[in-house]
Design brief:
Blueprint: H1 4-7, E1 10-12, E2 18-23, H2 32-38, H3 51-57, H4 63-76, H5 82-92, H6 101-113, E3 117-118, H7 131-137, E4 140-141, H8 143-156, E5 161-168, E6 173-184, H9 185-199, E7 203-208, E8 213-219, E9 223-224, E10 232-238, E11 243-249
Helix pairs in contact: 5-8, 6-8
Length: 252
């Protein structure tokens, strides 16, 4: 049970009302079910994204584009990469045995964010660097590159991560941000409350009603528990198993 004093410190996005969940293995492109599902649909995109933003940022909005993008995410998010494993070992080696998962997530976030230089001008989902290139070039780049690095380290440290994509017409921006699972049911709910109390600020989180799971944002701009600067979420990718969700309707 979250203490009443902490309840007003938590900012949540509402449960997604309608989302299309597609299971796609990272190794192969399983599109049969998707193609049949959308036959006869005269709308080329799976969600109502602004066409100019979609084209400017090469946002994956069609089924074939999303499948290619998800394959890339599955390839780029690699917790077994030797350099990632080295970083994860360095981070986890400094953990106290009594540290909570929330405290460990905070340590991971601070390690990456304190070294990352964000470049908004390079935001483009088709022209982003791979994980290997990011590690070779240094900790700088766009939100996708940051999300891939953060997700790889989170998973190497034993956490479950996903990459979320969205846009803001007001800010003229499309971007990605990583989210980390903090648990299901009351455990996840209490974890969000604990993070809010420890950080002494409102925590932006999303709740997946289907899995009863709580996810916390590690946005490159607004930080851990901050609300990413987007108006609509369109796509969520789960690199661990190759699933993705196209959000066709949402409320906040």
């Amino acid at each position: 049970m979250i203490p009443r004093a902490n309840q007003n410190m938590i900012l949540a996005i509402s449960t997604i009302l309608a989302a299309l969940l597609i299971t796609m293995g990272c190794a192969e492109n399983k599109t049969d079910g998707i193609v049949h599902l959308h036959q006869g649909n005269d709308m080329p995109y799976l969600f109502p994204i602004n066409k100019e933003l979609k084209e400017r940022y090469n946002f994956p909005a069609r089924v074939d584009e999303i499948n290619r993008f998800v394959k890339r995410v599955c390839r780029d998010v690699n917790p077994e990469n030797p350099r990632i494993a080295e970083i994860a070992a360095k981070i986890s080696g400094g953990w106290d045995k009594n540290q909570s998962d929330i405290e460990k997530i905070m340590v991971i976030y601070e390690y990456v964010k304190s070294r990352w230089i964000y470049d908004r001008n390079s935001e483009n989902f088709e022209q982003s660097l791979s994980l290997d290139e990011v590690l070779r070039e240094g900790f700088h780049g766009n939100s996708y590159e940051y999300s891939v690095l953060m997700s790889s380290i989170l998973e190497a440290c034993g956490f479950k991560a996903r990459i979320v994509l969205g846009c803001s017409e007001v800010r003229d921006l499309c971007m990605a941000f990583p989210e980390v699972s903090v648990g299901t049911g009351n455990y996840g709910k209490n974890a969000v409350g604990g993070m809010s109390s420890k950080m002494e600020k409102k925590v932006y989180y999303s709740y997946d009603q289907e899995s009863d799971e709580y996810w916390v944002s590690l946005d490159v701009i607004e930080g851990l528990g901050g609300k990413p600067p987007i108006d609509r979420i369109y796509l969520m990718v789960y690199p661990e198993n190759g699933e993705w969700k196209a959000v066709t309707d949402s409320s906040s």
